[in-house]
Design brief:
- The chain is an alpha/beta fold.
- The protein contains six helices and seven strands; from the N terminus they run βαβαββαββαβαα.
- Strands 1, 2, 3, 4, 5, 6 and 7 form a seven-stranded mixed β-sheet that branches.
- A hairpin with a 2-residue loop joins strand 3 and strand 4.
- The chain is elongated, with a radius of gyration of 17 Å.
- It starts with a strand and ends in a 10-residue tail after the last helix.
- 37% of the residues are buried.
Length: 196
């Protein structure tokens, strides 16, 4: 079985590698537009669009294409990747000393023995930040780390010192809920990693 990650995210790639998967990376080129408004529906639709786009381009038997999309939500406001350092600072100031949600949608396009079907799901994790002083926020923003991340932070990097607690899957916050992904694959195969 060939696994294909439909994402250029180094964080998703690292999660799969650490879990023991052997896979190829073929980033999706689909435009990420949706008319959905609920966070869970937004991420599942975008994840499905990405997975289907890559599957159409590399169409082959016995493969699993993994599409994913992650958003950060605070009080019904979706926080994407900040446009610049000023926006990153504003986002993090708003999230400091508060709890927000991280949603990741995952879509698996599975081609097996001539049959193609899709499994799509969403995971949500609550993340609570400590109070953060302005000096620490400015120092973190100046590193440039927030600029390619939804919500302007990476929980797996230097910003971890400001994360008070999480409720849910840690890897979901990083960008790929690997436990749920593996459980979904177990419904398809006795053991997806048995041929390692």
């Amino acid at each position: 079985m060939r696994y294909i990650l439909a994402s250029s995210s180094p964080r998703r790639r690292e999660i799969l590698e650490r879990a023991g998967f052997t896979f190829d990376v073929i980033p999706s080129s689909v435009e990420e537009n949706t008319d959905k408004t609920k966070p869970s529906e937004i991420v599942t639709e975008l994840a499905a669009m990405k997975a289907e786009d890559v599957f159409r381009r590399c169409r082959q038997e016995d493969c699993v294409v993994i599409g994913a999309d992650t958003i950060v939500v605070y009080r019904d406001e979706i926080l994407g990747k900040p446009a610049d350092k000023a926006e990153a600072y504003d986002m993090l100031s708003m999230l400091a000393d508060r709890t927000h949600q991280v949603y990741t949608g995952v879509s698996l396009v599975i081609s097996k023995k001539g049959r193609v079907h899709t499994r799509t799901f969403c995971e949500s994790t609550d993340v609570t930040f400590c109070p953060i002083c302005k000096e620490d926020l400015r120092a973190y923003v100046e590193t440039g780390d927030p600029l390619d991340k939804a919500g302007a932070y990476g929980i797996q990097g230097p910003f971890a010192i400001h994360v008070k607690c999480i409720s849910g899957d840690y890897h979901n916050v990083v960008g790929l809920p690997i436990c749920r992904l593996y459980q979904e694959l177990l419904t398809e195969y006795a053991s997806p990693l048995s041929e390692r």
